Amino acid sequence: MLRILLLLLLCTLFSCRNPQEAVRLDTHQLRPTGEIKEFVLDTDVRYNCFYLYLFKDRDGREYLSFLNYRTNQIYFYDWETTECILKLELDAEGPDGVVLCSGYYVKDFDNIYVTNYAYPGLIRVDTTAHIVQKIPYGTTQDGYEVLQAYTPSSSPYTAPVIMGDSIYIVQPPFRLFPIGQTPLSILIDTVRHRSVSLPLTYGVLSEKEKETNYYGTFSRIFDGKNFIYSFRVKEDIIIASQDHREIKQVKVTSRYMGDVTGVQEDTEWGPKQNLELARYGDLIYDPYREVYYRFAYPKVSLENDMNWWGKSIFGRKKFSVIILDKDFQIIGETLFPESIYNSYVFFVREDGLYISRDYQMLYGNQSDDYMTFERVELVKK
Fold first, then answer.
1. How far is CA 7 from CA 1, 12, 104, in A?
2. Which of 71, 247, 258, 283 is the most exposed place for a label (fewest CB within 10 A)?
3. What pLDDT was estimated at residue 362?
4. Between the CA of residue 12 and those of 5, 8, 111, 256, 319, what are the distances in Å?
5. Strand 352-356's sheet: what is its strand order?
6. How far is Cα 115 from Cα 151, in angstroms, rounded to an integer?
7. What per-residue string of b and e applies to 316-344 under the rule 16 or more CB within 10 Å gives b?
């Protein structure tokens, strides 16, 4: 009889657990290797952590590219030699003028896209700084005027997804339209010059989530089959089919996180609180190991005797990375040491995940004359 009672008790306990927790085995972890890749910067260069990409040319050679801070200069570095091979200086005015770049994305040397706040569309340029193509956003089939405020960035990762003649871009939640009717993504047909609203909207957020600061900030990736969205203030990730007609939500919760719906107070301490509140970050796909990484930022307390304006570009003091398998099940989570990495700057290579070590929020012994990245490897426990 006692055995039966114990068995019933165990069954009750397991049935009350969160389904995600019940299958969470934590069989894997991310391990910093100590292997550093360093790139020397010119004295007038300040790389912008929100616009940095790794890509390959037609021969498979890899390059690192970034937008020089508050300029129209795009730098290209050879990954193997770490040498700067090209400094692309875009005109602000004239027939090839792009005003001031508000965002950019490079898929390869044939597909370099920039945006600005003056032209409502994407501008494709070549490696001689000439404009090759202008892709207007326009108005969708249901009367939605595509917002020109879209800025492609690497963090939050909102780069355009290019499939043949179609380009998928995201939309910010500006209140020109009811939030429940504002699509997260737009499909642009570059041949027919028409735009299509995809059916997933900001209505996917709960009322509590909409009350938080930066509720509309999310990253979006395409893994070759699905579009995946990771909101800053939402535990669930959203997995959408290519046409966004099939949607499912999967809870991906960090063990180091508390409530992510905390509201930032509108005070002089706003920038500091923005760096303290618990938030989720980018979700990226590792095709070499068929796993996903979701960055998470636990709540922290920062010093009061420091000016925190502008410090957000250096990342967060504390972060973890949740590891998901190809079925979106959590298989591990790694908490990284504090005040070392800028987790807003990362990319995946065949030999592992690379994360920036340029954490300069507190301006310790680091230098802004270099870009440094550490290779992190995925290992079984």
1. 10, 9, 59
2. 258
3. 58
4. 11, 6, 56, 26, 34
5. 28-40, 370-380, 352-356, 342-349
6. 6
7. bbbbbbbbbbeebebbbbbbbeeebbbbb
